[in-house]
Amino acid sequence: MTSVLKILENLCYEDGLEISKLEKSLKLTKRVDKDNLNIAIKALSKLGIVQYVNEDKLSINNSIPFLQGRVRCSSKGYCFVAREDQGEDIYIREANLNNAWHGDLVIVLITKPGVKRRAPEGSIQCVLERHNDTLLAKVEPDKLTGDLKAYPLDDRIPVTIELENVIDVDKKLPDKDLIHEIKISKYPIAQHKAKGSIIRELSINAGVEGDIELLLAKNNISRNQDSPKVAPRKISLKGREDLTSQPSLLFQSWESKNSPSLPALYAEPFEGGNRIWIHSPTISERINLGGRLDKFLRDKGEVICLGNNWLDFLNESLRSASQFKINDECEAISLIIDINAEGNITDWKFSLSIIKPAKIINPKHLKAIKNRKPTSKSIPIAIKPIKDNLEVIYTLIHSAKLINNRNNVSIKLDEHIPNLERLYELHKTFPSRDFHGWSKTYDSCDSQSISDVYIRLANNILAQHLIGYKLPFIYKEHEVIDQSSINELTKSALSLDKNITVNLDETLTTNELIKSFESSTEKKILHKLLKHIIPGINLKLFMINNQLDNEVSNYDISTNNIESPWCCPSLNYWNIFNQFILSSLLSDGKNKASSRSKVIVELGKKDSWDQVDWEIFSSKHNENISIHSSLRLVQHLNEIRKNSKSFRNNIISIAQGREAQKIIGKEVTAIITGVQSYGFFAEIDELTAEGLVHVSTLGDDWYEYRSRQNLLVGRKNKRTYQLAQKVNVRVLKVDILKNQIDLELVKEKEKEKEKEKETVIENETIINNDPA
User: Taking Cα atoms as reference points, which of 507, 511, 513 lies closest to residue 484?
Assistant: First the structure.
């Protein structure tokens, strides 16, 4: 299927493109497809999006200020378009949606400029690319006709889908526990509704595997993508540094057989500090940028953790070729970092290498090392297999602690994930991957937490290196937390715990706030409130040549800690892209001014860019990099990251919901974690799952909401419900699809009646059993 986006991408020539060449570039051979293309061109021409240069040539019309962006709808019906150029979001009234759905890429025309605090308004002119070609829906009979129709579960897509493959309308209606995955065959246009067909039925009650299938479909993640039959490129060993004599170590916490491959580490004392080696599996050297294998990985985006298993990112041949194996010679891209006694970087060097990993270090080893007394001469059984590597491990742990203590930029918080077998792999640190604006607290007993410290440092070093060479890369941008939000949270913290010591001069940083919470008895609640105000992280593209990011070019990278991920290419595509730029610099970069020059520059060394005053790459290589370094790529990857984050949140929520189902009707203890005008949220101690106690269920009084104090107050009885208050609740209902748990407060009178009943029963039992 050809989208409008593909048509416009092929019309980027200033002097236009002939329609016959456009058909060829879109690979249209059938008469029907060519006719459909002509219909699309006429429609785009009438809208003013394209124009005829002459009778045969087409080009994009740049005289009209059209903007591109993605539709963002809320469940309450508000719609905006998030602009590609990072400008202010555009508000879209329902009448101007033009049948666009949540997530669609669209062209929009601003109809009313933004004034003061009001967003600009616009009208969607055309849908460039549909976000969903499949979606989950409930199949129910139409109230008027009785025909079965599909109603999407996502309430941000309020449409009705007519079903094409339902023959017998009078057949038995689907079970209420069944959800249907619908394949869209025709999207709505004008008065015509969307049409689709049922692909498969998914049961709400099909166990853990059934839950996973449900969530994959819900988040538009495909389990079975056809991998291209392309063998990975063979890597030339010429010029690679031989590090096979170095017993590098793999720090691995994940236990699943198909878990992703991670970097290898090695360290030794050096000039009063330490020298550290980080060896990354090389994937960028095995694929062609723009080739079929590259496109497959770009579309797939990243690896997905299914709880205690993994949905692979790499295809089997690429995974087998690149994965580090113990006592095998493996190609790698290595980074040597020198740090001093305080943990400051003094030097670094990138190189292409061959390594030979010696051992896997798991959490059991690290726990035994932590529990071992420093003066003990005996070696515990748990660490005997790695006794020859203990000095290296001690050096790596010590250096990781130094580096972590100096990192004042990234926010570290505890993750509260239920201790369930189905979520086992999620408990481990996910190196370099930020699903939120914060990452997991450093844990010296989690192998991957130690790796994470070095990986983030290596990412920061690559950003500095590529900025020095003015080369493009993808980096992670932490959105700024609004100071007013921090101030509001500070007030809430002081109302909860008066012993907290904070600086109230309105210059308090997030990390300072976290430190002030450490000794508080309400630390868990305060961290939960903090997580709500921390904005997310986005991927952005740094390209100094076309002024894509003037702000970044002025950054002092050493203090702003920009991360350019590259060490973990088995995790996601942005690591692969950045690794490609690095490996190109090391293998294809010109390391001297001319072929006759005797001065050779090591392009992987720190500050080497200061010695280079010539073009690093050939014009052809520069053109190839420029073609594939686009905003569209980064936006695509950000969409994938959102889907992955949503899936991760959903798989935790559904596990909590399943556990909550087991205690429906039972009384449990909970702590109030949020208060709103419509009720309060309480976290069940056993599940770390939140449920809502609706204000209508309180019943005994009229409750007023006081936002400044975060509490509900009864008008008559003056009873209050506020943050951190312990309450007894009963689970009423669990909605698995909406991730909602309804709770009911167990009131004191009810508890007294229950105690009276229990006392009566006990007395009757004693009387009946009395032999007299």
Answer: 507
